[in-house]
Design goal:
The protein is an all-beta fold. It contains one helix and 14 strands; from the N terminus they run E-E-E-E-E-E-E-E-E-E-E-E-E-H-E. The chain is globular.
Length: 198
């Protein structure tokens, strides 16, 4: 996975580090070049970190959150989202349009919904339980949303445009849905379940 960058301080006294995170900002990998291996399917964020080399930078190792990075002279770009699709022939998650999953880590004192979107994040379904039905064949993302105040959770709207004073979005699941007709074509399909974490 490669990408184009611009706007960073290219003075010889400065360094640039690129950070790949999950949707919640937890660092998965870092690179001094504009590329990362596309090992796993899912929705990720990439940040550019420009800093004064002599001053150094802290908390950029795998497992830290992007919000915990610190230093005396640095700047972090706005993230851009990178969607990595499964390789052809990847196993599906359901062939009958029904999908249920486990979800952990949300604040049980406030409301939680699960949002099924297309890969461009157009909202297809919204559920108050960790399950969906009637899903057409295709590739989808499922976002867990914990909230007290939120706007924009509407079928047909884009998930990127949700807003509110108090909400949190967990890491999305990538699921593949195939039609029953295709599943009966003589090929053996293995459909697997997954866990959804905040």
């Amino acid at each position: 996975m490669t990408f184009t960058t611009s706007g960073q301080n290219t003075n010889s006294n400065y360094s640039t580090l690129y950070l790949l995170t999950d949707y919640s900002g937890n660092i998965l990998a870092s690179s001094t070049t504009n590329s990362f291996p596309a090992n796993n399917a899912g929705l990720f964020k990439i940040y550019g970190l420009n800093y004064l080399t002599s001053a150094g930078i802290l908390n950029t190792s795998v497992g830290n959150n992007i919000s915990n990075i610190s230093g005396s002279c640095f700047d972090i770009s706005q993230p851009f989202e990178a969607l990595i699709c499964p390789a052809p022939g990847t196993t599906c998650q359901t062939f009958d349009g029904l999908y249920s999953f486990n979800s952990t880590g949300g604040n049980t004192a406030i409301s939680t919904v699960f949002v099924l979107t297309s890969l461009d994040q157009t909202i297809s379904q919204i559920s108050t339980t960790p399950s969906f039905s009637g899903i057409p064949a295709g590739d989808y993302l499922i976002f867990p949303v914990n909230y007290m105040d939120i706007n924009g959770l509407i079928i047909g709207a884009n998930f990127k445009n949700i807003s509110g004073n108090c909400f949190d979005v967990g890491n999305p699941l990538f699921i593949k849905v195939v039609s029953l007709a295709r599943s009966q074509s003589g090929k053996i399909l293995i459909c697997v379940k997954a866990n959804l974490l905040f």
